[in-house]
Amino acid sequence: MHELSIAMSIVDMAQEEAERRNVTIDAVHLELGPLSGVVADALMFSYEMACCGTPLEGSRLVVKEVAIEVYCPSCKAQKILTSMQWFCCPECGAPTSEVIHGKELAITALEIRDECRTTPVGSA
Fold first, then answer.
1. Do the beta carbons of residue 26 and residue 115 sit within 8 Å?
2. DSSP letter string, the chain
3. Domain count, the chain
4. pTM: predicted TM-score of the whole model, two decimal places
5. What is the domain-level CATH number for residue 46?
6. Who's near 119: CB < 8 A, 6+ residues apart?
7. Looking at the predicted structure, is the pLDDT value of residue 30 above 80?
8. Domain span at residue 87?
9. For residues 98 and 70, is the Cβ–Cβ distance under 8 A?
10. 107-121 pLDDT, tens per residue?
11. Across-strand partners of 27?
């Protein structure tokens, strides 16, 4: 289960950023494509395990699944695939191999809580 090692890397990177900024991480946002080779449910479960005993314990992993988008040489346009097993344009049926999106495995944002702040934002 390589998702655990990926989750541990995500926790390490987020923890380094939290320490650098002196903040607490409430959530890690991640983009995940079906061609990344990572199973979202296994990663979410592994993330909880990887967070145990770290400053990220109790934080959330928010996964945005990215569709497989390819370039169709016949239509000369980007198209969203309807099947991960069938790399053909969903409109004209032309085979395509140029993947634009779908391989993503990237942290896109961190939800943070500033530990130095003594009053809530917007308070008078």
1. no
2. -THHHHHHHHHHHHHHHHHHHTEEEEEEEEEE-GGGS--HHHHHHHHHHHHTTSTTTT-EEEEEEPPPEEEETTTTEEEE-S-SS--B-TTT--B--EEEES--EEEEEEEEEETT--S-TT--
3. 1
4. 0.81
5. 3.30.2320.80
6. none
7. yes
8. 3-113
9. yes
10. 999 998 866 553 344
11. 60, 111
